[in-house]
Amino acid sequence: VALLLGGRASLDEPTPGSRGRTPLALASRGGQLAVVQRLLEARAAVTAAAEDGWTALHLAAQHGHQVVAEALLQAGAPAGSTAAGGWVPLHVVAQNGDEALAKLLVDHKASPSAPCEQNATALHLAAQDGCVGMVRCLLKLGASADQTMTGEAAALHTACQHGQVGVAKALLDLKAAMELVMQGGLTSLHVAVQAGKPRAVELLLQRQACLEKQMQGGYTALTLAAKFGQEASVRLLLEHHADANVATASGWTALLFASRSGNADMAAELLRHRAVPDLATNNKRTPLIIACQGGHLSVLEELLRGGADPGATMQASWTALHYAAQDGRGEICHALLRHRAPVDAKTGSGWTALHLAAQAGDEAVLEVLLENQASLEAAHEGGATALHLAAQNDNVGATRLLLSRRASPNAKAQGATTALHMASQRGHCEVAQLLLHHRGSPDVQADGGITPLILASQGGHAAIARQLLERKVSPSMQLAGGWTPLMIASRHGQGAVVEVLLEKKAPADAHTNSGQTALHFASLHGHEGAVRALLAGGASPSPPALEGLEKKVSSPFHLARKKGHQAVTALLSAASSSADAP
């Protein structure tokens, strides 16, 4: 240093690679008092700041070099010099817990209330790091226990959030406001609960913290603890007589939160402390329903033992049993029924648990419900029974089970449709076979005379059409207007069904009341496969006109040509030429 000074080196030139730190700053960081003194005697800039704004005093404070800090202060270093983020030397000292340095800085006019990032003071920083002695020191030096940072958090909030029980105790001993509310309405008790710090919770409860104060959303410490699954805090709060039935703004109690998370031990503890088992949310979800929706059997059993109503309903009159059946939770269904849940309870639209299980195809749940005498005949507001729903959704096992328990295959839903209509319309071949085997009527008519064969023909389900025809269903049956299954299959281009119907002697040239044949419909819509099948099955390419019609019907050929169906036109032309050949 002496050589440098003798050579008139620049005292305040930053050292290379040091991010702007001067020799004075580096000497201060290393606690090299003699070097610092020589540099100061040579009038090194005591206020010089590095790229991050840190001065020699910041560095001396950070590393606990009290005598160096004292030398810098005596040389005029400002005790409150501000670095990036608003950090002053006292903030650094507060984190390190050096009480003597803190006193030195305050004696040299450092403000104990100076804010840094997020408006945190030295007291906040000491509280966060658990520096109990420093907290006491700062308070004696004039720091305010209740000064708040961003979010209106005081030092006690900070201590509780980080589980610094010693600091919290010191703050309370020195009269920090325990019920001070930060942003969002949180007290220190809320903060400790949310952060999962049961020792801090216990301390606050011992100091008579208010149990029922509500934060934003109406949360008390207990509902907050239950929401975040803080079982130890829940137990402590209940032991200190927190109200187990207080609800949030949306109607959620601690028991509802425990039911949602599946915490059976917490639910049992709440019930032991007189939590009402059927208190519901604002949209009428009870703890039991919530436990069912989550599949939490152990919670459900605690609730039932605690007196929960197994038949309680929420919006649209759904019960816990409905949810359990819908989601395939057989054990939960069994537990509910063992506690006398109404097996045939209906939703607002008339659905029973059996309907839901049949729709889902859950045979295990169906077994449980049927063992408890669930009604096979119960119909929802659309008139469908469980069998209708099983057939509609191609649930073969469920269909078989329901039929084995004597569900009626000919029960009619809205529009007089049977389960066979539904299976035929959707092409559920194995289900249709089961229904026919159990004496489902193959030619039963729904509204408008619609039969299973009509629906199978329209949908192109040739295998089902064959099954029905083999049960002696007439291929010649007619709807209003004279429509036959063959015409419907042809209209929709279902060539495979056309072949089956013709094989079973469906009349190829039957007319509607307005004179059209199946070939007219296939030609008009350009269904080449259906046209080919009809011609191969004996349909006339030029069917004779129906007598007595007021309006002449165009030929299939003219219809196809008018619509531009060239392949169909060619087929019909060739068929006509062949028919005209001697």
Automatic annotation (TrEMBL):
Superkingdom of source: Eukaryota
Residue stretches of each ANK repeat: 19-51, 52-84, 85-117, 118-150, 184-216, 217-249, 283-315, 316-348, 349-381, 382-414, 415-447, 481-513, 514-540
Keyword Repeat attributed: yes
Cited Pfam families: Ank, Ank_2, Ank_4
Keywords associated with the record: ANK repeat, Repeat
Region (Disordered): 1-24
Protein's UniProt name: Uncharacterized protein
